[in-house]
Specification:
alpha+beta, binds zinc ion, 20% strand, 7 helices, 14 strands, globular
Length: 348
């Protein structure tokens, strides 16, 4: 394939089984070295009124321990929880409801208030992956938990009020829609071809090569052919694992290094702390078989430019399919062009 491939076409998203309309032909300009104009003042590494800093009181009245690495606790404002009302009024007609049982947890990545995942050493990112794995095993073993969704919302533009580096876990009595769709697509592909769907996505990315950001180990990072957001990237082990639970220590380490390299490139792009929604997709824990399910991390940054959000509008909200204003190959070029050493570390 040549770099002059059309920037005005529909691309099939094999995991979501839907079209993405790429309409970048009007505004597909080369990289212009944009830089965010506003950078927030540097924060201290400990903040007295932060609910997540070590030793501090939380809203629940619980006090955080003087933790030194990853710290996991039950969310003080759970959206699903063991205390959710069990006896509910039945709604009329075809409507139905269910108790919002499950477990919601917060995962603090580090005691340092002013760091981000991108700035942590690879060893700390590996430790986080181990914590995610342990949570998946612990929560997934509960009878009422059918799925464990691990995610991080980063940045004010995605609604995060506390900058202390942290993510969340929702262990729910239902399987989230995207996972359900991915699992069904993966199962069908496996039955038809005897191969993991995600594995075939990796092969197609490697065959093309233009959107790969990291391919040096047992892990890979790429901005997929079917990206919905301008800088959307996937981080995955190359071997098929349904969850982190079956990955070797070496594979977890490689995945951590790969993830860090992506997050560093994100920050380096505009020399700002890059906002994103990161999710770890692992197979449901409802006891069913998930042939071909291949765990991976998806990063969905909401920005198209330093101060320009991708607005979800008619096609996305009204219709349910994404219209991409940018060409994935160009965005991958931008990310490949920046160093994989964090700009703050370069200045130091
Ligand atoms: Zn804090
Ligand atoms: Zn996924």
């Amino acid at each position: 394939m040549t770099s002059g491939a059309p920037a005005w076409e529909q691309r099939w998203h094999p995991l979501r089984e839907e079209w993405v309309v790429v309409a970048a032909h009007r505004q597909d300009r080369p990289w212009q070295g944009e830089r965010a104009t506003v950078s927030p003042p540097p924060a201290p590494d400990y903040v007295e009124n932060c609910y997540f800093c070590p030793g501090n009181l939380r809203v629940s009245g619980a006090r955080n321990p003087d933790y030194t690495s990853v710290f996991v606790f039950d969310n003080d404002h759970p959206c699903v929880g063991v205390e959710a009302p069990r006896s509910l009024e039945r709604p009329p007609g075809i409507y139905h409801n269910a108790p919002a049982t499950g477990v919601a947890r917060v995962v603090c990545y580090t005691p340092k208030h002013n760091l981000t995942l991108a700035e942590l050493p690879a060893s700390a990112v590996t430790e986080l992956l181990r914590a995610w794995r342990d949570q998946y095993l612990d929560l997934g073993a509960r009878a009422e938990v059918r799925h464990v969704l691990t995610f991080e919302n980063k940045g004010e533009v995605v609604g995060v009020s506390n900058p202390h580096p942290h993510g969340q876990i929702y262990a729910t009595n239902f399987v989230f829609k995207t996972i359900e769709t991915e699992a069904a697509a993966s199962r069908r592909h496996y039955q038809e071809h005897g191969r993991s769907l995600f594995h075939d996505i990796i092969r197609a990315e490697q065959e093309d090569g233009r959107r790969i950001l990291f391919d040096d180990s047992s892990a890979i990072v790429f901005l997929p052919y079917f990206a919905r957001y301008a800088y959307e990237c996937y981080v995955a082990p190359k071997e098929t694992h349904a969850s982190l639970a079956t990955m070797s220590a070496g594979e977890l380490h490689d995945l951590a290094v790969a993830l860090k390299s992506l997050l560093v490139r994100y920050d380096n792009l505009w020399q700002m702390s890059f906002p994103y929604v990161l999710t770890l997709h692992q197979a449901p824990t409802d006891g069913a078989d998930y042939p071909g399910f291949h765990c991976h991390i998806e990063c969905h940054p909401p920005l198209r430019k330093p101060n320009l959000l991708k607005y979800l509008a008619g096609p996305e909200i009204g219709g349910g399919n994404f219209l991409s204003d940018t060409r994935p190959e160009s965005k991958a070029d931008e990310l490949r062009a920046v160093p994989d050493v964090h700009y703050k570390a370069q200045d130091a």
